[in-house]
């Protein structure tokens, strides 16, 4: 389950999967990957949290169980224009 946080209206909407992000890929400005260990209450069974910020201020937020799959998924061509910030490299060095 992923959420869309509209920062301007301060509303949250849930979406089922990454399909929403793919449909809005051209609007993504920044993709940030952070390790779950950064959070006081990390999501159990997940390695990383991903936040994709869109040009209109909305944020797509989801958890990933596999950091390797996460990095691969977000390096796809449709998102190559976005700034990519991987803060999980210290916790999970790239192999």
Helix content: 10-25%
Distance between the termini: 27 Å
The number of helical segments is 2
H/E series: EEHEEEHE
Q: Return residue spans where pLDDT drops below 50 for at least 5 consecutive residues.
A: none
Strand order within the widest sheet?
Answer: 2-1-5-4-3-6
Count of individual beta strands? 6
Rg, Cα atoms, Å: 13 Å
Strand content: 35-45%
Question: What does the largest sheet look like?
Answer: 6 strands, mixed
Mean pLDDT: 86
How many domains make up the coordinates? Answer: 1
Instruction: Indicate the structural class.
Output: mainly beta
Oligomer state of the chains in this structure: single chain
- The shape is globular
What can you tell me about this protein's structure?
- This protein is mainly β.
- It has one domain.
- The chain has 2 helices and 6 strands.
- The chain has a 6-stranded mixed beta sheet with strand order 2-1-5-4-3-6.
- The chain starts with a strand and ends in a 9-residue tail after the last strand.
- The relative contact order is 0.24.
């Amino acid at each position: 389950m992923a959420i869309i946080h509209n920062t301007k209206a301060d509303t949250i909407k849930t979406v089922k999967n990454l399909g929403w992000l793919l449909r809005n890929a051209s609007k993504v400005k920044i993709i940030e990957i952070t390790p779950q260990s950064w959070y006081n209450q990390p999501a159990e069974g997940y390695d990383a949290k991903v936040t994709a910020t869109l040009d209109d201020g909305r944020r797509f937020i989801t958890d990933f169980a596999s950091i390797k799959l996460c990095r691969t998924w977000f390096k796809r061509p449709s998102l190559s224009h976005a700034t990519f910030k991987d803060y999980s490299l210290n916790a999970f060095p790239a192999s």
